[in-house]
Structure formats: structure tokens, C-alpha cells
Amino acid sequence: MSAKDGKMDKFIKAVDKLTDSKGISKLGKTLNKTIDIAGNIISSTAEVTNHQIDERNKRHQFDIKLPDINGLSLDQTKDLFDSIGLKYAFVKVDPDIKLATTKTDTVMKTVPKPKTVLPAGGFVKVYYLDDEGLEESKRILADIIHKKQSRKDSAKALVNKVGHGTAIGANKVLKVSKKLVPHSKRSKKIKDSKDSDEIEK
């Protein structure tokens, strides 16, 4: 008898037990108990889940989604936050070159960011630029533009000075060389040096 035959015999015996009336009834009872247990687990899990959802909804029923208020005036912002029950503080931003063209007394940004969910009575920082900050930002921008222009002008002046100095220097060198060697002799010397170079080769 081979190993396959032994396994087959065991399988046949197991099937015979199941087909026996007692085996089928035991199987049916086991399935019924399993289904009852699974049903109880599912219903108790559903109750726990529903309870947790209800508790979460109770805790967050008064939460507020922070609206995007960038660009609103400070008065409009104050009215809005008072009506929805948020606490707030207005904070002046420091002058910066990027703010030289910004509107004053309007909301630039908020902390936390827009669309953040806050509890009722949550706190929001509202950043804005006032007139003094705008003037300072414009002054900073004007200073930077002036410095850039000064650097450009200095660079141009240096180039002109160097270029002018080079031209004057070259003219002086030519004048000196003409004084040292008269023109007629100079050309003769050049011819003589060429002839001597050719002879040496």
C-alpha cells in the first residue's frame, strides 16, 4: 500500500463520518453556533463603533472651519470672528521689500491657515500691514534701488576710467617709442632684423 492510498483511505473515512447522520447533525450545530457567535460579535462591534461616532460628533459639533479671510479689512474680520465665536489677535507684520505694494489694514495671513478646523472659541492670529509699515517697506525698496543704481554707475565709471587710461597710456607709449627711435631708422632696423633672421635659418 502506497502513501497515496493511505491518504485516500483517511479521506474516505472522514467523508463517511460526515455523511453519517450524527456527523451531519454535529456539523449543522457547529455551523449554527459559529453563525450566532459571528452575529453577536458584529452587533457588539457595531454598537461600540456607533457609540464612538456619537461621542466624536458631540465633542466636535461646535467646531468651526476657519474661512479664508485674506484681503478682508480688519473691521470685516472683527465682525466675522465675533459672529462665529472665534477669539483673535491682530499682529502687525514687519516692513519688508515684498510689502511695498501691499494694501494697508487688510488681512495678509492667518495662523492657523484657512480651512483649519477649530473648536468653538478657538484662537486665530491675524497678520496685517499698517501705514507705517508700508512707508518703511517703500523706503527699504527705494534704498535697494538706489544702491543698485550706485553700483551700476560706479562700475560704468571704473570701466570708463580704465578704458580712458588705457587709451592715454597707449598713446604715450607710441610717442615715447617714436622719440627714442626716429621713424626712418626704425623701419630700417626692422628690415635688418628680418634679413638677419632669414640668414640664420
Automatic annotation (TrEMBL):
InterPro entries registered for this protein in UniProt: PASTA_dom
Pfam families: PASTA
Domain PASTA: 64-127
Stretch list, region Disordered: 181-201
Record field: compositional bias (Basic and acidic residues): 190-201
Record protein name field: PASTA domain-containing protein
